[in-house]
């Protein structure tokens, strides 16, 4: 049974305390949802994503050698929609033991971009995660749905914390999290899945 919104009202009345609770509850919702996504996406890229990577790679593998010049790596990543700074690029190369290489083969390019592609928050992907919560297909996430997923993923959240997540995400006051509200949470959290639950700041 979904409890009333009293907890949410108290948080809003608490000024900065309310904002602190919102940060914690939004972080917890996002963390739980992203844990669900990780479980789904553990298998790697799907066919459509792999084709996207292949097309970006081929733009710079003009001679069909199966490699791209290290100098063109940043542009290839940009073709996939990723703006990568030099420091991150060096880290990515180090991760595949290519920090001193002059070329990158396709397989290692795939290895480099897979985590970035899997972390993209498209509407379609977020709605797939939403469906994992909405197992009874009501079009909304209830307290029961949230508690089930948190338990399955081993999240140590008590009932009060779960209710806070509902209260803060629930903008229309119906005691549930609908698709738009869930999408707003996921986009608001950006790329910070491991944000500390007690922190008020985004990295």
First CA to last CA: what distance? 35 Å
Mean pLDDT score: 75
Beta-strand residue fraction: under 5%
Question: Sheet with the most strands?
Answer: 2 strands, antiparallel
How is the largest sheet built, in terms of strand order? 1-2
Radius of gyration: 20 Å
**Envelope shape:** elongated
Quickly count the helices. Answer: 10
**Helicity level:** 55-70%
What string gives the helices and strands in order?
HHHEHHEHHEHHEH
Structural class: mainly alpha
Poorly predicted spans: 1-23, 39-43, 190-203
What is the total tally of β strands?
4
Question: What does the secondary structure layout of this molecule look like, with pairings?
Answer:
Blueprint: H1 6-13, H2 16-41, H3 47-60, E1 67-69, H4 73-79, H5 86-95, E2 103-105, H6 106-118, H7 123-133, E3 140-141, H8 143-152, H9 159-169, E4 177-178, H10 179-189
Antiparallel strand pairs: 1-2, 3-4
Helix pairs in contact: 1-2, 2-7, 2-9, 2-10, 3-6, 7-10
Using brief descriptors, characterize the structure shown.
mainly alpha, 60% helix, 10 helices, two-stranded antiparallel sheet, 5% strand, two-stranded antiparallel ribbon, disordered N terminus, 203 residues
